[in-house]
Design a protein that fits this description.
The protein is mostly helical. The chain has seven helices and no strands. The chain is globular. The two termini are 30 Å apart.
Length: 156
């Protein structure tokens, strides 16, 4: 993951703050998953998703103002995209992941998280036309191959 995220340094799009936020996001989401699995006995997935959404908003909104000084209000179709992100990734995506953690081995859920930097880099390349360095592509291939090897059934 380190190479996937950090190997864009030197490109026009690179910024240290972006790399630090990417590392923090992966760390926070790893903790989120561990807590989701740990609390699955006491809370159902919907309650956990709702509680973390409230806490996330209480942390993220002031942090956005602290870092940027202001938050831009979407205009026109921006509200539709914002609603799609909140409902799609925010509610449906997290709810599905929280529900699945009761039914799948934890390593499967955490492997999905390890693929997030790969998916994010590919989406930035496809949607935002950001360049991928050869080191990033090699690192992404390494992550995918390593996770594939780990997921392969053990032959005895």
């Amino acid at each position: 993951m380190l190479v996937v995220v950090a190997s864009s340094s030197g490109s026009p799009e690179w910024h240290l703050r972006g790399d630090l936020v990417a590392f923090a996001a992966v760390g926070c989401f790893s903790l989120y998953l561990a807590m989701a699995r740990h609390t699955a006995v006491e809370l159902n997935a919907a309650h956990y998703t709702a509680a973390t959404a409230v806490w996330g908003a209480l942390v993220a909104v002031p942090l956005a103002f602290a870092v940027e000084g202001q938050v831009t209000v979407p205009a026109g179709s921006g509200w539709g995209w914002l609603a799609f992100l909140v409902i799609g990734a925010g509610v449906v995506g997290h709810q599905a992941m929280n529900w699945s953690l009761r039914h799948i081995p934890f390593w499967v859920g955490s492997s999905v998280i390890l693929l997030l930097p790969v998916g994010a880099a590919l989406m930035a390349w496809m949607v935002l036309d950001e360049a991928l360095t050869r080191y990033q592509v090699l690192a992404m291939a390494g992550v995918v191959l390593a996770l594939g090897a780990m997921a392969r059934p053990r032959v005895r």
